[in-house]
Structure formats: C-alpha cells, structure tokens
Design a protein that fits this description.
The complex is a heterodimer.
Chain A: H1 3-11, H2 16-32, E1 46-47, E2 51-55, E3 59-64, E4 70-72, E5 75-77, H3 82-91, E6 97-102, H4 108-120, E7 125-132
Chain B: H1 7-14, H2 19-35, E1 39-46, E2 65-68, E3 89-92, E4 95-98, H3 102-110, E5 119-124, H4 130-143, E6 148-151
Parallel strand pairs in B: 2-5, 5-6
Antiparallel strand pairs in B: 2-3, 3-4
Helix pairs in contact in B: 3-4
Classes of the chains: A alpha/beta, B alpha/beta.
Chain lengths: 140, 155
C-alpha cells in the first residue's frame, strides 16, 4: 500500500453533495421545528422582556387556546376533568413544573380559572409563557 | 485549477482538509435541531389561593397590592403594537398612577427590601385581556430584580 497515494485519494473526496444534503436537512428542520411543539397552536402574548423558562421537557404544558379550551401537553381536556388529568400528568414526572401557554386573545378570566385548577392540584406557582416582542413568530 | 498557472499554490488550496469542519457543523446542527424548538420564555408567578380563608403569606396590611381595572386601563382587547396604551392607569397601594411610572414606583418601594421579600400582589380584573395583563407583569418585573408576583382575586 502506497501511503501517499491513498491519502491523496481521501483528500480528493468530493464533499459538495454531502454539504448539499446537510443544508437541505437544516432547512427542513428549520421549517418543521414549529410543528414539533407539544400542544395546540397558541398565539402567545408579546411582551418586552420575558425571562428564560428552560425547555419543554420535564414541564407540564397547560395550553389555553383562543376559544378557552384547555390542553395538557398535546391532549385536549374538558374543564370538568382538568383536575384529574393534571394529577395524572403530575404522577409521571419526577419534578413537575407547570407552565401555561395562554392565547393572547383570551380574557384574563380563562387564564385565572386555569391557574385555580392548577392550584387545586397542589401547585403554588406557574410559568406564564410569552414571546419577546419583535422576535419572529415561530409558527404559533 | 490549472488556469492561474501557479500549480503548487492551487494544489495546496484544493487539499485543505474540511472533514473536521463538516463534523463540527453537523454536531452544531443536531444540537440546534434538538434544543431550539423546545425553549420557552415567560414569567414565573404565584397562583391565587382558591380557599377564601387560606392563611395569607404576609399580613394583609403590609401587602403591596397592584390593581388593574378595565376603566382605568383599557386593555379589553389585545393591545396594539408594543407596550400598553398611553392613558393606562393602575392602582398601586391605593394610589392611582400612570402605568408608565410603575417600574420607578416599585423600585422605590421594594428596592430596599431583601430579594426574598419583594412581593407584589396583583389583582387583575377578569375582563381584561390576557396579553395586556402579561405586559403589566412585564412592566413590574422590569422595575425590580427578583420580584415575586402573586395573583390574588378581589371580591
């Protein structure tokens, strides 16, 4: 085996198709990323300086859609069964934290009722999810 | 690559090893693919106690209460643009003030407290728009570091 020759062969591998594939994958995932979220499409409120809330894993996502419908993670839940559904979701998590994704068009009443139901399941605090004003809308 | 006549120079350029670069880019791509869609931003708040006679965390008279009503602050619909309507007024510790003064007032009242005791009780009217209420939460948190906001219900 002539070492010099084989090294030359490797260095000459044409990686342009590989880079093309990677770029296309990148674009596909950028487009798909908003649809990978849990829960319904919620038009999140715009505020000036929301603080970081970490990522969705390990959180119980309570969504309130624009019609006032309640969701836990990606399941719609009837208001009268909300408490037990929340307790079921809590049981599966080791260190549960609850966040509320409320639609910007809601009245405060709907969000407050969701907060009361969460309090009855034994939580003292929630995170209210918003998005930074001026940041691009990520499809929800 | 033979057209510029400098055969050795162009040979060198064509043999730059870009494999590590591609590796790094692929790893970065995977990291961003996994992390970006899951990041959230928002506000931590405390929830109102449902039972009316629950023991308040703080003596009632020392509570700093911020009330927002639909008459003084017209945010029944999602506020247009950014921020709050210019004529929005709120009630902080029984004083009626323009919402724009809220961060300065809160800094004045709570700035000297130790961080664990910076608590603001927020009484928002049910009829208000949720986005408007969150913008007031944002305004309050911008005035004081580590501010704890607890929603209360007023009846």
């Amino acid at each position: 085996m002539r070492l010099g020759e084989s090294v030359k062969m490797q260095a000459a591998i044409n990686i342009t198709p590989l880079v093309d594939v990677v770029l296309v994958l990148l674009i596909i995932f950028m487009v798909m990323a908003p649809q990978m979220r849990k829960g319904p499409d919620v038009n999140l409120p715009n505020t000036a300086k929301p603080s970081e809330q970490g990522d969705e894993r390990g959180r119980i996502l309570v969504s309130v859609d624009h019609a006032g419908g309640l969701w836990i993670d990606d399941q719609p839940v009837a208001a009268e069964h909300f408490g037990e559904a929340l307790r079921a979701a809590v049981g599966a998590e080791p260190d549960p934290k609850v966040v509320i994704r409320g639609d910007a068009r809601l009245k405060f009443r709907e969000v407050r009722q969701a907060m009361l139901a969460i309090e009855q399941a034994g939580f003292r605090g929630v995170g209210l999810i918003a998005k930074r004003a001026g940041a691009e809308a990520r499809g929800d | 690559m033979q057209f510029n006549g400098d055969a050795s120079g162009s040979n060198l350029q064509s043999e730059i090893n870009i494999t590590p670069l591609v590796d790094v880019v692929l790893v970065l791509l995977i990291i961003f693919m996994v992390v970006v869609p899951l990041l959230m931003q928002g506000y931590d708040v405390d929830i109102p106690r449902s039972s009316a006679n629950a023991v308040p965390a703080q003596a009632a008279e020392s509570r700093l209460i911020l009330s927002i009503g639909p008459k003084a602050c017209r945010i029944l619909e999602p506020p247009a643009g950014e921020g709050l309507p210019a004529d929005c007024r709120v009630t902080l510790a029984d004083q009626n003030i323009p919402a724009a003064e809220l961060p300065a007032r809160l800094a004045q009242i709570l700035g000297s407290q130790p961080t664990g005791k910076r608590v603001l009780f927020l009484a928002a009217d049910d009829r208000l728009n949720y986005e408007g209420v969150l913008r007031i939460v944002d305004l309050a948190k911008s005035g004081v570091q580590d501010l704890t906001i607890e929603f209360i219900t007023t009846h």
